[in-house]
Amino acid sequence: MPITGDQTLLKQINRMAIVRRVRQQAGQSRADLAKETGLTKSTVSLLAQELIDEGWLVEHEIQITGALGRRPTPLSIDPHRLAMVGAELGVDRIHVVATSLTGEIVWQADEDFLSVDAEGVLQRLASLLIDGIVSVRAAGRQVLGAGVGLPGAVDESAGILKVAPNLGWRDIDVATPLRSALTNAGLGDLPLYLQNEADVAALGEFEFGEAPVPEPLVYLSLGIGVGAGVVVNDRLFLGSAGFAGEVGHSILQVAGPRCSCGREGCAEAYIGLRAIAQQSAGDGDVQASAGTLVARASAGDPLTISAVQRAGHYLGVLMQNLWTAFDPGRFVLGGPTCELGAPLLDAARETLGRYARDAGLPPPEVRVSRYGARAVAAGAAGMVLHKLVRPL
């Protein structure tokens, strides 16, 4: 299918091609960018100046090298004038952050919610998004847009959360009330993007990771639920209906423990926080939070350490299965379960390493998200950037 567009679109494509090249390799000159993009030097010079004026790029002082002739001026991404706002709608908590173009968090807020009434929760989400946008603008930054990571399968084009098992929600229109609230606050012109939590966290690691980021990149979201986001060929892998990545409901053990989805032996029933809490409870709290489990493990509680290590073992099994399916260049682990630290992560790496040794192959790289518990919110901000720098 041919792609057509007017001169405005063509210009935006060329502008964002320059931005992407500078993001991949800072310090390039206008002449370097002309060679890399295939644009003429005069076009690059004109567009680069526009991008500098708008806050996308910044020029650095020319370094004296002793060479004759005019020295090129290096360009890099400007971390000070533009921002994106991202939010995570979790199972019991809302996280909102604003990030710079280079991924630094410049504003943040959190709020717990007890009721899972969709209307009320979405009102609070909208209010926190608006607070973030207004605060960042007051600090002198232009906001490029807002993104939201949602805890379940998302119909991105319709803005509908199709199913969120851990909230008990089905077919909830998220986009309409959020856009309405933004419009009522005078912010209706801002782009708004919605996607599954693991997918947006994967985009955050991809967009804000140290370049070049190896592909495929597989992000595993570890909390009450377990999900995956996959970036391949510079794009999210979403599947035929947009719902790829529901790995928490892949089967790790036939006739295993019953999962919240009704199946038996799902990954969530071994790796999810509720499963770890139940395994560690003994006669205690079967609804323990990540913070409570961390405290117990730090105090040396043997039941908790054993439960966390067991979950880590099954996490390694899950990564092994995803390794054979996607051959990733990097796994990134994020979400509140990662707060359990070494007992979980060491067990996961040991299990994955054992499978690799058995196959005579080097294991894929495994990292923990740079954003910790805010990986989804930061990723939602990264989703805004991902969309804007790829106009097609």
TrEMBL record:
Gene3D superfamilies: 3.30.420.40, Winged helix-like DNA-binding domain superfamily/Winged helix DNA-binding domain. Coiled coil: none annotated. Residues 23-58 form the HTH iclR-type domain. It comes from the Bacteria. Signal peptide: none annotated. Belongs to the ROK (NagC/XylR) family. PANTHER family: BIFUNCTIONAL UDP-N-ACETYLGLUCOSAMINE 2-EPIMERASE_N-ACETYLMANNOSAMINE KINASE, ROK (REPRESSOR, ORF, KINASE) FAMILY. This is ROK family transcriptional regulator. The lineage of its organism: Bacteria, Pseudomonadati, Pseudomonadota, Betaproteobacteria, Rhodocyclales.
